[in-house]
Design brief:
Blueprint: H1 2-11, H2 27-35, H3 38-63, H4 72-87, H5 100-115, H6 122-136, H7 146-157, H8 161-191, H9 195-211, H10 216-219, H11 223-226, H12 228-246, H13 253-269, H14 284-296, H15 300-304, H16 306-318, H17 327-337, H18 343-348, H19 354-367, E1 374-377, H20 381-388, H21 399-405, H22 408-417, E2 422-425, H23 436-442, E3 443-449, E4 452-457
Helix pairs in contact: 1-2, 1-20, 2-3, 3-4, 3-5, 4-14, 5-6, 6-8, 7-8, 7-13, 8-9, 12-13, 13-14, 14-16, 19-20
Length: 463
């Protein structure tokens, strides 16, 4: 809903980052703007997921070329694709949600498909770099997919001086392709007058986001204390890659590539140490292929794949990743589709506040113009903004944005200087006493929608 809110802002001409804030690069918001609402956003995701699954199928065939007939390798491709298709689309890992990870894995696999051509040219490598850049412009952690191919080149091809020159040349072409689109976005936001805000929000501020869930004693500690977990994970990636390098003559190219790919994506997955299941989607391609090797091949590598797979399965356990129910998601829909429950009952099964949020959005659409500003103080504020297609008079659209990157005092001051037509405060919202003087002076309570107070700006203060 945050993405849809920023997408609405784009359509209304509000500049990203300086006018409306979130901490991701622009492609996700542009996709949301093209969608316009939840239905089309999910429809775009459905077609994107189908294209991604097709790309995965072709990558599986590229890595494990099928032999004649129904060979074991063809079975490997089928099993890998079935696992990948299932895990990237069901609620267990939020595969049904339009998150950045669902979009970035497609360009990454397209890049690897190009890079595994037998005859690599500058144009092909440059194009692969562009695709890695597209992935990173959905979400920055996609950048950790790029060094996978470089490490793979080093492990499998670094034998003599000429190999080093070739790898360096290919890396330069790849890097050029990667940097160019990002550089163009910098130029674009420079001309939009939002370069500083873009750089901070989409790139630099993510460093703070990575540590925002750590305790104050860790945040304020010395460098090694603050970054111990980060350095340990980086050490695991380095050590794992080094072991693969030392054993490279005993390992297949496929095993080397998949292991290195998994190590780097797990590093990206655990960057923030946050327990969101959709982060794991970035690792699902190598995991699906490794699982297929485990289920189909009868070689010593069938046993070896247990090691990288074990590392993968330890991650969600160690970081206590959340688990989203899957069976109930489809059972709920089945009940609605067969008219065993009505629309309100269906919505209520998602959250007790879902029906109320729709009612608030309906009220705002009826009672305000599209260019009127509203302010919602609620854990569900992005939901109400997106459903009503109304925007706040400040750049922050979510409660945690204000808590993490601003303050309640700053927000109250901004609202006083640029009043919203309506201020809505839901009962589950945290206390916001800083806004009380503003409400008493400039607003009147006109409605209560299932516990949510609706304050209207007095005519005296309207433009």
């Amino acid at each position: 809903m945050i993405y849809l809110t920023l997408g609405e802002g784009i359509k209304q001409g509000v500049p990203l980052y300086s006018g409306l804030y979130d901490n991701k690069p622009p492609l996700l918001y542009l996709t949301a703007a093209a969608a316009g609402n939840v239905f089309w956003f999910r429809a775009i995701l459905a077609f994107w997921s189908l294209a991604t699954i097709i790309l995965f199928w072709h990558l599986a065939k590229k890595l494990f070329p099928p032999l004649s007939g129904a060979s074991p390798k063809m079975k490997l491709q089928q099993i890998a694709t079935a696992i990948f298709a299932l895990l990237t689309t069901i609620p267990l890992l939020e595969g049904n949600m339009a998150n950045a990870e669902n979009f970035l894995i497609g360009p990454v696999m397209a890049a690897f498909l190009i890079l595994f051509n037998k005859k690599l040219t500058f144009k092909k490598i440059f194009l692969a770099g562009l695709l890695f850049s597209v992935a990173a412009l959905f979400k920055i952690p996609a950048v950790f997919d790029l060094p996978v191919i470089i490490v793979f080149w080093v492990i499998t091809g670094l034998v003599k001086k000429e190999d080093f020159k070739k790898i360096a040349k290919n890396t330069a072409a790849l890097g050029l392709g990667f940097i160019l689109p990002i550089l163009l976005t910098f130029i674009w936001f420079k001309f939009q007058g939002a370069f500083k805000e873009y750089l901070i929000a989409a790139f630099l501020q993510n460093l703070g986001y990575l540590s925002s869930w750590k305790g104050q004693e860790i945040k304020q500690g010395p460098f090694l204390v603050k970054n111990a977990a980060f350095l340990i994970r980086a050490g695991v990636v380095f050590l794992g890659s080094a072991i693969v390098f030392l054993l490279r003559k005993k390992l297949s190219r496929q095993f080397i590539f998949l292991t290195v790919w998994l190590l780097f994506t797990l590093f990206a997955v655990t960057l923030s140490e946050r327990p969101y299941p959709h982060y794991l989607i970035q690792s699902l391609a190598p995991v699906s292929l490794l699982l297929a090797v485990l289920f189909t091949q009868k070689t010593y590598e069938q046993s070896l794949v247990i090691i990288p797979l074990l590392i993968f399965f330890v991650v969600p356990i160690y970081y206590k990743f959340w688990i989203y129910p899957t069976a109930s998601y489809y059972t709920r829909f089945s009940q609605f589709a067969t008219k065993k429950i009505n629309k309100e009952e269906y919505f209520a099964k998602f959250s007790p506040s879902t029906n109320r949020n729709y009612k608030i959005a309906d009220f705002l659409q009826i009672s305000s113009r599209p260019d009127d500003k509203v302010f919602v103080w609620s854990p569900d504020s992005p939901v109400i903004y997106a459903l009503s297609r109304r925007l706040p008079p400040i750049k922050y659209v979510a409660e945690y944005h204000i808590n993490d990157f601003s303050s309640k005092n700053e927000t109250a001051l901004a609202l006083s200087q640029n009043p919203a037509k309506f201020i809505i405060i839901t009962p589950e919202a945290p206390a916001f006493p800083e806004i009380t003087p503003l409400l008493r002076q400039k607003y009147i309570l006109i409605n209560n929608i299932e516990g949510a107070d609706v304050w209207s700006l007095l005519r005296t203060y309207r433009e």
